[in-house]
């Protein structure tokens, strides 16, 4: 009987761990793994900035115009300036949205990957960037076909 009572006293004396201590201890026990530094095959920052500027002008402006067609059409119809059918409002808006979609592709494909910015329109870079995009997807598709 006395042995059992001694064990109960030892159980009561155990230190209670708070949530904060438990998580702190977990973080201490986890080893930090540092990845090996290797050359990234991603898009360099200066190229991404150049793409973002081109996308803003070639996709952003037509998209904003596509949304403003609804506002302008609403103002014209409510002030009885002209009678505009809803189908033409939607068609003009869709045209601007499609122009923005084309501008998005153009903005990405026309950006130069050189340190120095290319020409203003960048048309000479489109074919080269299409080849780069094809080359980026080529290894993945080859591995897929080999597994079959």
Short overview:
The protein is an all-alpha fold.
Q: How many DSSP H or I helices? A: 5
Separation of the first and last Cα atoms: 70 Å
Segments where pLDDT lies below 50 for 5+ residues? none
Largest β-sheet summary: none
Count of distinct strands: 0
Give the overall form: flat
Give average pLDDT, whole number: 80
N-to-C series of helices and strands: HHHHH
Helix/strand-derived category reads mainly alpha
State the helical fraction.
55-70%
Proportion in β-strands: under 5%
Rg, nearest Å? 31 Å
Compile the SSE list and pairings.
Elements: H1 2-12, H2 19-29, H3 45-78, H4 86-109, H5 126-147
Structure description:
This protein has 148 residues and is mainly alpha-helical. It has a domain at 45-134. 69% of the residues lie in helices and 0% in strands. The protein has five helices and no strands. The chain has helices at residues 2-12, 19-29, 45-78, 86-109, 126-147. The radius of gyration is 31 Å and the shape is flat. The mean pLDDT is 80.
Which characteristics define this entry?
148 residues, mainly alpha, 0% strand, flat
């Amino acid at each position: 009987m006395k042995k059992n009572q001694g064990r109960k006293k030892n159980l009561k004396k155990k230190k209670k761990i708070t949530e904060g201590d438990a998580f702190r201890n977990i973080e201490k026990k986890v080893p930090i793994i540092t990845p090996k530094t290797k050359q990234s095959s991603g898009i360099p920052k200066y190229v991404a900035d150049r793409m973002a500027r081109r996308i803003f002008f070639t996709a952003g402006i037509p998209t904003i115009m596509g949304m403003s067609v609804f506002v302008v059409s609403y103002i014209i119809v409510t002030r009885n300036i002209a009678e505009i059918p809803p189908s033409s409002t939607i068609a003009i808006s869709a045209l601007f949205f499609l122009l923005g979609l084309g501008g998005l592709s153009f903005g990405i494909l026309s950006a130069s990957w050189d340190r120095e910015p290319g020409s203003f329109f960048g048309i000479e870079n489109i074919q080269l960037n299409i080849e780069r995009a094809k080359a980026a997807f080529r290894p993945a598709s080859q591995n897929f076909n080999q597994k079959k």
